[in-house]
Amino acid sequence: MSSAKIVFQCCMSAKLLVEEGGSETTINKGLIAYVAFLKDCSDEVLHKIAETICTVRLISDSNDKLRSVIDSPCDLLIVPQFCLSGKLKGKCFQYHTAVPKVAAESLYSRLVKSCDTFLRSSATWLSKSCKLSYGTFGIRQILNIETNGPFTHVVELLGKKVRIKCNPTDKVGDLKKLIAAQTGTNWERIVLKKWYTIFKDHITLQDYEINDGMNLELYYQ
Amino acid sequence: MSSAKIVFQCCMSAKLLVEEGGSETTINKGLIAYVAFLKDCSDEVLHKIAETICTVRLISDSNDKLRSVIDSPCDLLIVPQFCLSGKLKGKCFQYHTAVPKVAAESLYSRLVKSCDTFLRSSATWLSKSCKLSYGTFGIRQILNIETNGPFTHVVELLGKKVRIKCNPTDKVGDLKKLIAAQTGTNWERIVLKKWYTIFKDHITLQDYEINDGMNLELYYQ
Q1: Is Nucleotide-binding given among the entry's keywords (chains A, B) (predicted)?
Q2: Nearest CA to B16 among B30, B3, B5?
Q3: Which residue of B has its CA nearest to A69?
Q4: What is the DSSP string of B151-217?
Q5: Which of B141, B142, B153, B154 to mutate to test the interface with A (most CBs of A within 10 A)?
Q6: How confident is the model at residue A160 (pLDDT cuts 50, 70, 90)?
Q7: What is the pLDDT of residue A1?
Q8: Which of A37, A106, A132, B196 is most solvent-facing, going by the fewest CB within 10 Å?
Q9: What domains sit in chain B, N to C, each tagged with a CATH number?
């Protein structure tokens, strides 16, 4: 279960169009974070995504030590980039794991706010007059960048994790009911997977060799 | 088992330093492919990586239809980007899945050659005087790009797949011997995994519910 895919690039400067045929936003030395929200994204993980963007150590300081946007401190440009959710099938990308547009727009604006709050909580970041810039959701992200090496990195962030107490003799259906009770969902909509195996309700956990501490993937039908 | 991680960005133009403090290479409208080789990369998959780069459909034509570098046709810039192999641990990236430097350098130069051969085999691509440019392995990739929307995509390519004929009553150890015979390796070095499960030699395939058509991950110890 993934909540977001982010590509990071370092830049010396960047210029992004924020209004079709209109105004631009610019940053100086800093980090560009291209973001796509995936199906398991929720409000609960937005703060985690913002924290990752602001604290990931990718910016070289004068001693070639890597620092984050917040402790470097430097500028940050957030670019909405739906297409990062793409999976290559043959020669084309498919986008089945992306959050629908309306939800993604709302997540995006809250992510920007969350990064803003996070950065402004740092006296170091504020003291250097650093800048947070961001693209406009839904328009073409016309972007120019100058780098001293883009130092490109990719991150796929996971969604929420729940820890469930159960017995080896419990059936998969029982586990689903326990998950439903903890997450406030309908157990019949839950699909439990591990790699390509979809677990069947009437089989016990021990028959599937589902042991303590094992991570399963959870989807909703 | 992954062989390479690639980030694609579309550009209107790009300029890359290819000699420290020295000359640059430029491309016009085209595709930038940032490439990192991962541990399972081998000569056999290099051709597949080159084909993916040259034929992936990411370039908009005048009717907003997506076309590849080879059939658009347009320029291609290959950028060695070791750091794409990074996995985020806490606030830092770790690079344990990257191919060692000497092997990566050799893979990189053969990838460039393979892309060159692939593109030159197309009369369409040749007829438009399109350009294949590439960065110098091991130096800082000082890059400037102008985009009409970078349209960033990420691909992680898998390594070689082998198909093995076996019986449900075969033990995992027997399957390893069959794989070893087909791949010319020592069966005792083979580790078979699926998600977090490492399959034990003395257990039968049916006990692990390993069925026909199921994909397992293979590692060498």
Answers
A1: no
A2: B30
A3: B91
A4: --EEEEEE---------TTSBHHHHHHHHHHHHTS-GGGEEEEETTEEPPTTSBTTTTT--TT---E
A5: B154
A6: low
A7: 62
A8: B196
A9: 2-158 (3.50.80.10), 172-220 (3.10.20.90)
Q: What count of residues does chain B have? A: 221
What is the pTM for the complete model shown?
0.79
Closest CB from A83, A145, A151 relative to B145 = A145
Q: Which of A16, A26, A88, A206 to mutate to test the interface with B (most CBs of B within 10 A)?
A: A88
Closest CA–CA distance from residue B212 to any residue of chain A (Å): 13
Q: Which residues does chain A have within 8 Å of residue B196's beta carbon, measured at their own beta carbons?
A: 214-215
Read out DSSP for chain A?
Answer: -EEEEEEEEEESEEEEE-STTS-EEEE-SEEEEEEEEBTT--HHHHHHHHHHHHH---EE-TTS-EE-TTTTT-EEEEEE-GGGG-EEETTEEE-TTBPPHHHHHHHHHHHHHHHHHHHHT-HHHHHTT--EEEPPTTS---EEEE-S----EEEEEE---------TTSBHHHHHHHHHHHHTS-GGGEEEEETTEEPPTTSBTTTTT--TT---EEEE-
Position B198 scores a pLDDT of 84
